[in-house]
Amino acid sequence: MTRPDSKILLEVKGLHTDVAGVEILKGIDLTVRAGEVHAIMGPNGSGKSTFAKALAGHPLYKVTAGTATFDGRNIFEMAPEDRARAGFFLGFQYPVEIPGVSNTAFLRLAYNTVQGARGKDELDPLEFDDYVREKMKLLDMDVGFLDRSVNDGFSGGEKKRNEILQMALLEPRLAILDETDSGLDIDALRVVSGGVNRLLTPDNAAVLVTHYQRLLNYIVPDYVHVMDGGCIVKTGGKELAVELEARGYDWIKGKAAA
Amino acid sequence: MNTAVGATHPYIEALLKGCEPGHDRLSWLGERRAAALERANALTVPTTRDEEWRFTDITPMTRVPFRAAGATSRPGTTEIARFIAPEAAVRLTFVDGTFAPELSANAGLPYGVVVTNLAAGLVTHGSVIEQHLACHAPAQQDVFVALNTARLHDGAFVWVAKDQRCPTPVQLLFLSTQKETAAYPRCLVLAEAGADLTLIEDYAGLTDGAYFTDAVTEVAIGDGARVQHVRLQREAGSAFHIATCAVALAKDARYASHAVTLGARISRHNLNVRQHGEGAEAHLDGLTLIAGRQLADTHTLIDHGRPNGRSRQLQKCIVGGAAHAVFDGKIAVAPGAQLTDSAQESRNLLLSDKAHVDTKPQLEIFADDVKCAHGATVGQLDAEQLFYLQSRGLSLPRARNLLTYAFGAEVIDRIPVPSLVEELEETVLAEIQSAE
Asked: Of B272, B281, B280, B265, which Cα lies nearest the Cα of B303?
């Protein structure tokens, strides 16, 4: 639901970002308020993932101009871990495999680090085990994933579930989910979307980066933004996604050029 | 007669000072020591001009005038408690090369298992020792083996009789307590056919001063016998440690080595595994974790001398500061050693710009129906993995520690002694944190 009166969680103005000396983002403006769901759509190479990674603080993505405040703080002055602790979450398009680090140890370390930074109680291994198992039910995840190395040898869909499990544990105020739908079959998509929907509250917000409208049938956005050539070229309601699905991106590209 | 007069090299001469053969009660031992002394006199200190020492400059060691370690007040049981693996109900402790019975525990062993000092073992098991001692680690080309053998007067002796199983791990603890001394630890480990043994060979220092450990270990594993060999080199930071371990495998024998190198200013570990019987299997794991200005060199040889042999090797080095790690791993397959199946992997992690690693896999294959895989990688921590961990709230140092730890964990987790796994995990985390 659009909430013009609720608290602004993220405010991005005129964001320009370079990757390896090439300008990818060429002036992004976006305001996300508590309780809202935004979708960012657009063709491959339009800069959607760059936008997500720049906000998360990936070292290869250099912000050259513009501002972004998260919960009133300049996000670009915060280390990536501080963004996470403050409640910013990036669901990775390609979750990274970390052989040798057990998933349960990683999840507990992340959970306790973020809890500690927020002045909340940390959990010992036994308490955490109970807690994480509850969260895994939400995503219909096999507890066997706890004993494996982080994402190591996980299928595409398993990795995405593991991302949303992390979102469930870290309870972000703003989650940017980068192509969470890719690699999911229709049943998995329903489960993962259901999990995300249950995590959304009037106090938090989500930005869904996606190539397809399919995901938006399950997680219904309040706003749909279309990116092209490093800019947001069109913003509309959820019906815009349906129109894009039917007509493709070319008509918008044409518009942008015009 | 002072035989040391004939030494080619003044440094060797100094190390041999006071070493005289001919006092042995056993003529065969006297002859072997005399032959070793002759070789020590003929050989010189290796330099980086020697192919086998190309990457390992031991000049700093030759600047210290080491003397043979004399009698000293021994540490108490409380001082050494932290080195003892709780699982190892059987252990021998040597202080500066001398057997310390009061710090050892070798009573009540089951029939067919002997763990004692060599001097005592020679009395009861002289003929079996004669068949092996100084036979597997040849002094011919190696001055440090020659020195050790020339100095041989005592050591550790472990013997497991045919089809017997040693019920607990056996720990052999070699402690150095005096600066500017040299100690010559010696181990002889014999597992007869069908025997089963887990061994912990452990080197540590109780002094901050520079000292020198020149160790030789010989392991002979009989038909179908199995030895799991954990080796911990956790010498003091300014120590020098040069060791050779020679392993002989009979038919269907199985040998697993878990060698962890943490200590010493300069260290060298030669591990030579020879398959003398068909169907023998060797599994060599190595982990080197060094920082500061440490130099740690691991040279291994797996010699597939007979058909149907199998070997698996994983060598990992984590190098921080301005440290330098060396791995030279030779796999040899003799003519006729058909159906040999060998795989070697050398993986190296550099934690700083000044850290350095030289890795040199070598294959010498003289049989045509064999499988020999090898690979080597040198890298830094993965930037994407670091960012992923940071994006979940972990600080950069914490993320680096976790990834570095995970890199070493693969080797540590396979060590068959749970208390050592736990202890090494903590040690590695602490080392990594101090290397930050």
From this structure: B272
